[in-house]
Amino acid sequence: MAQFQRPKTLLDSLGEEIIRILTPVSICMFLVVLLVSILNSSSSLSVTSIATIAYSETSSDSSWDKFLGALLNSLAFVAVVTVATFILVLFFYLRCTKFLKIYMGFSSFVVLGFMGGEIALFFIEKFSVPIDCITFLVLLFNFAVIGVLAVFMSKMAIVVTQGYLVLIGMLVAYWFTLLPEWTTWVLLVAMALYDLAAVLLPVGPLKLLVELAMSRDEDIPALVYEARPVTHHDPASGPIQRRIWRQRQTVRLDSEDNSSSNRNVNVISDSNTTVSIVQTSHSGTGIARVEEGQVLESIAELSAPLINRGMDGQDGMSAESLMLEGMGLGSSGAIKLGLGDFIFYSVLVGRAAMYDFMTVYACYLAIVAGLGVTLMLLALYQKALPALPVSIALGVLFYFLTRFLLEIFIVQCSLILVMF
């Protein structure tokens, strides 16, 4: 009988990890391309936002003026994002976590309610859907409220939470595609550079936020997509070395004859680490807390695989080796990807869809390749990494190469029947 061996490092399960994070990214990009293809053909809607605060692009402007204006818009947008991120770090440092969660919930409600409602109105108008305003408002309000609860209450199925995160990313990305063309492309490059600096520089706001969260052993109150961890277990190997989910989990006892109101406290110790599973008396829920050690098979469903590191006899690890937020590994061992990465990936393919589907295919393959490279670097360096730079650089490069070189070549080959 074939036996499954637990992977030694993330590189051993890299293919599965890529699929688990690539699937929602692909769905988000596909939905944005679908929205652009359906709605932009019938509506010439333009938006005014922070991204166009310094310059409004017009068709009569020269290319140089458009570039300079787009550069000013991008600098203004990046400056606003930087200030907002430092304010987020300040509030998180002051332990205003509840306020941040309320703010994030309100932002999600606005995205789902107002942006989602506007797009729904576009569809109703385009396809002449018969619906009265009261029914529409009731459905929209319920849709938005359930989305906020699913994302921030963490008491719904993980599929529902992940689905709403993808929808939020899709809605925001579609509105970004309505920006002027030059502003969109320069903004994508500017955000990739900002992501690189914010995560890797010692004084970067995202790096400070991650370090603060890891020092407190807290989750960052932000919109972050977390893929399910890949688990491999050999039944013959005995106890499993895992890392327990930090969230509260529902624990069902296998033995039905235990009618006592008090629950057991199981402690497993070795020379370096301790694992504690504390079960409450009547609620059926427990709080699992773990450093690194061994976990019994009976609680394997609450765990995710460790990534082996050279401990060198030390009891603890440095803060840098535990930096697992951003695009990195969460406490559960699952890959985490910020929703902003979803948005800007989708903006790139959405803008490409406004020109031709050939550029969409090229940009999609470039983004997937960049995401794979970033995941490989994540597996090697074991620290939070920016997910935008590689994918955006490849995507922008492939877009312009496809638009100005590949398409011309293919069209000429088709005209002389070399390729058809």
Automatic annotation (TrEMBL):
The PAL motif is required for normal active site conformation. It is a multi-pass membrane protein. Keywords: Endoplasmic reticulum, Golgi apparatus, Hydrolase, Membrane, Notch signaling pathway, Protease, Transmembrane, Transmembrane helix. Belongs to the peptidase A22A family. It comes from the Eukaryota. Homodimer. The keyword DNA-binding does not apply. InterPro entries: Peptidase_A22A (IPR001108), Preselin/SPP (IPR006639), Presenilin_C (IPR042524). It is found in: Endoplasmic reticulum membrane; Golgi apparatus membrane. This is Presenilin. The chain crosses the membrane at residues 21-39, 67-93, 102-123, 129-152, 157-176, 182-206, 361-380, 392-418. Its EC number is 3.4.23.-. Its main location: endoplasmic reticulum. Probable subunit of the gamma-secretase complex, an endoprotease complex that catalyzes the intramembrane cleavage of integral membrane proteins such as Notch receptors.
